[in-house]
UniProtKB/TrEMBL annotation:
Protein name: MATE family efflux transporter
Domain of life per record: Bacteria
Keyword Membrane: yes
Lineage: Bacteria, Pseudomonadati, Pseudomonadota, Gammaproteobacteria, Oceanospirillales
Membrane topology, record value: Multi-pass membrane protein
Keywords: Cell membrane, Membrane, Transmembrane, Transmembrane helix, Transport
An annotated Gene Ontology molecular function: xenobiotic transmembrane transporter activity
Source organism per UniProt: Marinomonas primoryensis
């Protein structure tokens, strides 16, 4: 059985660090396997194989983003119910979000699978690169319901403050993938398709771990009731749909970047694909920040602790700044090794070095946007997150990378993205701070009004 709302007590900085570190470790393990995929495939001596996974990853990021969106709904609804002390409601919401996720992800697979070649062609994949990317995606997309279940299970455990067990699902998935990769890629000689099969098996291993944590450890799944499910569809969708739109903006930005990059040739595409694998491994602690801050905000919002909500935001900023400072320095020092280990051509190497030297610290400003998104998703304004992320993906991406690439070439694409992150990160954080102040003022006025009404009743 879940215990008390432990995120409403103790140091908010400690909670942020612990929740982020465990979330980051799980994410980095998962994305490290993608990085190893890229490393193994680069050993095949085919730049088309590396470019194919780069194109395919743009689409996979879209499907994973949908899973993350539904898990955000699970975290927000369950954490608020736990903060209010209503465990039965938390259990009901948990099982209904899970049912919603399975139905939704199965529908997405059914719609997406036959259109994979056309989608890849539309973002610039051609020739052998298109064929390899299509084969890779047609295998991997089948595992989307498994990813959905694993993500929702992790979201439920994070809502309870059990970040350690939430980490185990992605950790086990990463280990299984890492063990199977060389077997399917090299021993069976399956190449790109082998990498996809290994990843598919790993996704199903995530389901087993998540199920064990949610059901056997926390006993957090209530009995499924169809009428309760229909009651909960609305609150689930009110968070999940804006969160989906919010998360889809990132694949949109990636697709815009990939389309622009393809005009500079396969060397540039391969470099962006390698950078895309490096980013989640190096900046996993930043990507985990939104998922870490969300449960802290949700439980304290349910408990009416606005002071701790503001403290959690400040703690998250301090954590993000220190994290980026250390990791960006490490990335700068390791850039030559990365160029060597991925067998990068001269054109690819120049882009990788440019990212490590000039662009990487922009992820601190992206962390401000992640914090803002956590605030709006968990405190009742998810469409604000959508507007911010779509703003970054469109106004903060396309015009900037178009202009800067005219003057700087392929490097301008990376630099334009960085400028967009700075602008929208600062804007989002400012909006989020103001929103918490508004919520506190609204609750205070409601308390005063309630007290006045009680006083009037006493007189009568």
């Amino acid at each position: 059985m879940p215990g008390p709302a432990k995120l409403t007590q103790g140091s908010t900085f400690k909670h942020v660090v612990y929740m982020s570190a465990t979330g980051a470790f799980g994410l980095m393990c998962m994305f490290l396997v993608d990085l190893v995929d890229m490393l193994f495939l680069s050993m095949l001596g085919e730049k088309e194989a590396v470019a194919a996974v780069g194109f395919a990853s743009t689409i996979m990021f879209f499907t994973i983003s949908l899973s993350i969106a539904v898990s955000i709904s699970a975290t927000a609804l369950v954490s608020k119910a736990v903060g209010e002390g209503n465990i039965e409601l938390a259990k009901r919401r948990a099982v209904n979000v899970l049912a919603f996720g399975i139905i939704f992800s199965s529908a997405v697979v059914w719609l997406l699978w036959p259109k994979i070649p056309h989608i890849l062609l539309s973002i610039g994949a051609t020739g052998r690169t298109l064929d390899l990317a299509t084969g890779y995606l047609q295998i991997l997309v089948i595992g989307m319901p498994a990813v959905m279940i694993g993500m929702i299970g992790s979201g439920i455990m994070r809502a309870l403050g059990d970040a350690r067990r939430a980490m185990y699902a992605t950790l086990v998935g990463g280990l299984v993938n890492a063990l199977l990769d060389p077997i399917f890629i090299f021993a069976f000689g399956l190449g790109v398709q082998g990498a996809a099969i290994a990843s598919l098996i790993a996704r199903f291993s995530m389901v087993a771990v998540s199920y064990y944590g949610v059901v056997h450890i926390h006993k957090m799944l209530g009995e499924f009731d169809l009428m309760d499910f229909f009651k909960d569809v609305k609150p689930i969708c009110l968070i999940a749909i804006p969160a989906m739109l919010t998360n889809m903006s990132s694949p949109l930005a990636n697709a815009i970047v990939m389309e622009h990059t393809s005009s500079f040739g396969d060397d540039a595409v391969a470099a962006v694909a390698v950078i895309g694998r490096i980013i989640p491994v190096v900046f996993g602690g930043i990507f985990a920040l939104s998922g870490a801050v969300g449960p802290i905000l949700g439980q304290n919002y349910g408990a009416g602790r606005f002071d701790r909500m503001r403290s959690a935001m400040s703690s998250a900023v301090i954590y993000a700044f220190a994290y980026c400072l250390v990791l960006c320095f490490c990335l700068y020092q390791m850039q030559d090794w990365l160029v060597s280990v991925f067998h990068a051509t001269q054109g690819s190497a120049d882009l990788i070095r440019f990212f490590a030297t000039f662009v990487s610290f922009s992820f601190f400003f992206q962390s401000l946007l992640f914090i803002a998104i956590a605030v709006f998703n968990n405190l009742g304004k998810p469409f604000n997150s959508t507007l911010l992320n779509f703003g970054r993906a469109t106004l903060g991406t396309w015009p900037l990378i178009t202009v800067f690439s005219l003057f700087m070439g392929a490097e301008g694409i990376l630099f334009g993205q960085a400028i967009g992150s700075v602008l929208f990160g600062c804007l989002g954080f400012y909006m989020a701070r103001n929103y918490i102040t508004e919520l506190e003022a609204k609750e205070a006025s409601e308390i005063v009004l309630s007290n006045n009404l009680h006083g009037y009743d006493d007189i009568l």
